[in-house]
Design goal:
Blueprint lengths: L9 H28 L4 H10 L4 H8 L6 H12 L1 H20 L2 H12 E2 L2 E2 L2 E4 L15 E5 L4 E12 L6 E7 L9 E6 L6 E6 L10 E12 L7 H17 L7 H34 L1 E2 L2 E2 L4 H29 L8 H28 L6 H8 L9 H13 L5
The structure holds flavin-adenine dinucleotide.
The site of flavin-adenine dinucleotide has 21 residues, from strand 3, strand 5 and helix 12.
Amino acid sequence: MAEFTMELNDEQKEVRDWLHGFAADVIRPAAAEWDEREETPWPVIQEAAKVGIYSLDFYAQQYFDPTGLGIPMAMEELFWGDAGIALSIVGTGLAAVGVLANGTEEQIGTWIPQMYGDASDVKVAAFCSSEPDAGSDVASLRTRAVYDEAKDEWVLNGTKTWATNGGIANVHVVVAAVDTELGSKGHASFIVPPGTPGLAQGQKFKKHGIRASHTAEVILDNVRIPGSCLLGGKEKLDERLARARERARTGGERVKNAAMATFEASRPAVGAMAVGTARAAYEVALDYAKTREQFGRPIIDNQGVAFQLADMRTQIDAARLLVWRASWMAINGKPFTAAEGSMSKLHASETAKQVTAQAIQILGGNGYTREYPVERMHRDAAIYTIFEGTSEIQRLVIARTLSGMPIR
Ligand SMILES: Cc1cc2nc3c(=O)[nH]c(=O)nc-3n(C[C@H](O)[C@H](O)[C@H](O)COP(=O)(O)OP(=O)(O)OC[C@H]3O[C@@H](n4cnc5c(N)ncnc54)[C@H](O)[C@@H]3O)c2cc1C
């Protein structure tokens, strides 16, 4: 276990500064344009691929940082640059994590490279779990996967929604029910390979924020995929289903399914994204408050403004510490006995919403226009309290974990 320290080591500082440079020089200058265009910023993803930021290797290196701080540090810097573009760069990671968490070595080796492509031909991937009637209530998803034993193929049918990169992805990871009686225990994840007939993009959403990130419905109409595309393989699935059926029959202890475990582990990373957006808005507000003069003095000379900035920075630092704690616990195999992952996401995402709103206030009329970036940052920040589990769901998880009661 790494010794406790509040300081990044030299290697981490080097990576942080390199990422910050990319965020400042490449991402931030492109942010307003891609927000207006509401399109995937392929040239920026390509730049990220060229320098090695858009690759599995990079994320694996950060993930295996023994302090746990590699991923949160990377997320904070990239999202400091711009949330929409950064999500376009890291969105593939959610699908990759789905494969890493549940796939065999062969599946990892086959599919993850196809998710990223290479610098001359970048690709993206999508993780499709949410459905029109299964958002917070993931267990109720209706997409079905039926095994065609004669052909050793799975047949997928259903409609997914809110999929980041849905329809434009080279590889889609789809969560579907193989046994509807078992709720989330009867779910399995599947790879839909590039160009598979029957998978089509539905509506592309016009969003409030993170507009450079593509979000769309994915329609699955008799999508036939080889048996080898079931993540983890059939034998493992059959064993898991048998255990779940036995538990359902005997009322045995509930065990978290793989998808939920992945979400819990990824929540601090979403918290870190929120910290990045909040810090970006705070910095703009601090600079503005020092230079904007009213009544013959900089507006920061007024406690009414300065105290807001003090609160903003305090909340941001508190959020980062919660994110770092959860990330450190996760890499050191410490269970989230007080739902520390959810706590970090809850506090960081609420902080991002609040801090970006305060930043608009400090910039006055300018803050309300698209001439200044805080308006975009505020729109972007609203996503953090929604995706990967809303704030209400995080509170539910925390309250249930702390009380042991089935709070609704
Ligand atoms: C931009 C964007 C990108 C996304 N990317 C992906 C992706 O790549 N892949 C994917 O699978 N999904 C993705 N999602 C989906 C996202 O995870 C869901 O939107 C989220 O889980 C909430 O589900 P919902 O929108 O159906 O809201 P609902 O579940 O309908 O919730 C509506 C409101 O009710 C509240 N609520 C619901 N249940 C309870 C309860 N029990 N107690 C208290 N309050 C409750 C919620 O907190 C919320 O305020 C994305 C969403 C967005 C907006």
